[in-house]
Amino acid sequence: MSKKVLVIGESREGSLRNVTFEAIAAANLVSDGGEVVGVLCGDGDLKGMAQEMVYYGAARVITVSNPELKTYTSDGYAQAVQQVIDDESPEGIIMGHTAIGKDLTPKLASRLESGLISDATEVVVEGGDIVFTRPIYSGKAFEKKKITDGLIFATIRPNNIPSLNRDDSLTGAVSEKEVQISNIRTIIKEVLKKSSDGVDLSEAKVIVAGGRGVKSAEGFEPLEKLAEALGGTVGASRGACDAGYCDYSLQIGQTGKVVTPDLYIACGISGAIQHLAGMSNSKVIVAVNKDPEANIFNVADYGIVGDLFDVIPKLTEEIKQMKVNA
Amino acid sequence: MNIYVLLKRTFDTEEKIAVNGGAIADDGAEYIINPYDEYAVEEAINLRDAHGGEVTVVTIGEEDAEKQLRTALAMGADKAVLINTEDDLEEGDQFTTVKILEAFFEGKEADIILAGNVAIDEASGQVGPRLAERLDIACVTTITKIEVDGTTVNIERDVEGDVEKVETSLPLLVTCQQGLNEPRYPSLPGIMKAKKKPLEELEIDDLDLEEDDVEAKTTTMEIFLPPAKEAGKVLEGEVDDQVKELVSLLKTEAKVL
Q: Which residue ranges does the record assign to the Electron transfer flavoprotein alpha/beta-subunit N-terminal domain (chain B) (predicted)?
């Protein structure tokens, strides 16, 4: 049955996040030949980004521009999106499972008294049902879930559902919606940027992660250089965070972030179950560890038994060399 | 302050997961307080010690969850409530949980409700923000620092690695992120005292709810394990050669470069 499905888009520093395009692809499947409608909130001119959503498969896009939406607040965005939902009466809503998605979608689901399937890694149509696959126990297992009553509402994990190809011959209407926003109960005073490269772990294509074997905060430097050479970002095991080598925001594992990059390079990480839960679904895993018996080698596609302080700088050079030659 | 903590009993993080008859096998599993909820308990105790009042921990589950409630009481919480759904509910989801909590909080006048940012089992992260919406109070997720001054609350929260400083006011619901605090271990006197602290048990009838009111909006069709990952290739030879071989494999075989 064809459906109208809203995709709540998300931008960062003036461009759309990839997961928005992935959400359009998921919505396209959910809509089953119906209409995929983009929604984009912010302040100022949102037309360029709205147009991008059309190129990636949205039939049309509604922009909501308001000074109160300049920075994300759950109250502001919930009110804005709610007013679009009231106009459109969608049968489905899809958004990325990002910091904003995680904050906003439960509020909307609660207002709408609807179900919500969070953090889906796959969407398929099975015998007329829309079936979402999502990790549980941090990826130690998976479950298939469906909505049994009303609105098909889900968030999708970045990097898992391929976006459609960008096609700039696609056309679609971009319309503006005026909204009333009042009573925002949280005031954002300041944002301290910590991630230097702006790539969030959950969306990174390449992650170079360090464990206790990195030995100190300074020990992360070679890892950072390798990440830079690969256009990736740095993560850490709980051991490294607990030892104070790096910030908890970098922690990957059952407590911490769950990641699925294309390439995961584990450096001096033993491979505790709690860490494996956070990264073992990465597409390709490389392990570098002095201990040939380390558990991490059981999940690694490629392993090097050796001292990371010897191996990683050499690997960085080799990658740089390859890029020069390419 | 009237402080509440939402707590969930979960598998220990070191547990391996097996599937038996379409469900997660739980025989012999060790259970803990969901680690993120443990931050919530610790912070609730700190807030009470600084501002006075009372900490009540609430869980929805079965009889067995009493153990985790007692642990929270041993840490220093004052009262515990177990909403026992064992006889009434077969399958619930976040809608169900929040319907029950909404009924529980009716007339409670909570100043602050603390919850984990996510539970490490089902990991939806929905219950906190959903409940705040039902109770029509402000909600701040993934907090790493909180200071309460009168009714003004200053918070730092983790947003994908950045730190967002937020000002808001009571009443409030927050969800706790790693880095907020170091949860204490229960002391022996704490454990002794916890045995005598009040632990109230409720069923959904006590909250004037019927099974139909809390019927889930989603259903789980299947639970399965990811395909076992086979150990890959451990490279050999001199480090320089291994590095060259690795780059070549990543490029031609794995095609990730």
A: 21-211
